[in-house]
Amino acid sequence: MRRMVVLASAVAVVASAAAWVRRSRGVVSTGGPGVMPGRIGSWINGYMDRPLHAAVARLLALQPDDDLLDVACGAGYFLTETASQVGHVTGIDLSGPKVELARRRLGARIAAGTAEVVEGDAGSLPWADGRFTAVACMDAFPFFPDPEGALAEMRRVLRPGGRAVIDVNPRIPEGTESHALRGVGGRFMAWNDADVRRMVEAAGFAEVEISHLRGSDNGLFNAMSRRSFGTDEETIVAAVKPLPSPPADAARAEEAGAVG
């Protein structure tokens, strides 16, 4: 109980500070919507996202030989804690302060050449085609101004056969149309499952699977989420970049060989 009270108090302090910054300066010090500022905010985000991180890692089936990209990596908690066994990890975030925090957390791995964290936009990823075997994106996608473009970029930097798992949150009831919402972090989108599937497939992904996850294992945060958004569940989509189709002549020759 004491831990929950302390955590709730920290949330209130951070939210008040963020609101004051907006009023006084017109901007949020983190440099991006939907994020909590500073070390305390990063710790709160990391604490709340533990179930989400575990679910994403499980769906990605991460292996030591993977080359993983975390889009909107924040302070790097997923990369340092849940994906620590992955051979090479990379993070990108729009917020300069969050990038600095992630670089500190990953300092030893960056020095060893097995990690990289850059400041940048999900809509224009600074890597060559086919660089990564796995891509994760959590707690940020509904805030992207061009989600379709971000999906296309994630697919582009994946190798053929590479996996992507994206937290599309929040879940909305069946039969509800996709719509925009506004919360403490700003305007964000809420898509129904049918629109999520269409959007991901239109970006060129295959084997699209949609699941739903309770956003936290903390009852207080779940209650806050239900009060704010009408749900405490998030929509998670897993997909694969398809392997290239064989040339028509090779396909015909293979079929003829099978018949013969």
Which range best describes the helical content: under 10%, 10-25%, 25-40%, 40-55%, 55-70% or over 70%?
40-55%
* Spatial order of strands in the largest sheet: 3-2-1-4-5-9-8
Q: So what's the oligomer here?
A: single chain
End-to-end Cα distance, whole Å, is 72 Å
Order of helices and strands: HHHEHEHHEEHEEEHEHEH
Q: Total strand count, please?
A: 9
**Kindly state the mean pLDDT as a whole number?**
80
The major beta sheet can be summarized as:
7 strands, mixed
Here the CATH topology equals Rossmann fold
The CATH architecture is: 3-Layer(aba) Sandwich
Number of helices: 10
Going by helix content, strand content and strand pairing, the class is: alpha/beta
Name the overall outline. globular
Number of domains: 1
Give the full name of the CATH homologous superfamily: Vaccinia Virus protein VP39
Overall radius of gyration: 20 Å
What are the low-pLDDT stretches, counting only 5+ consecutive residues below 50? Answer: 1-34
CATH class: Alpha Beta
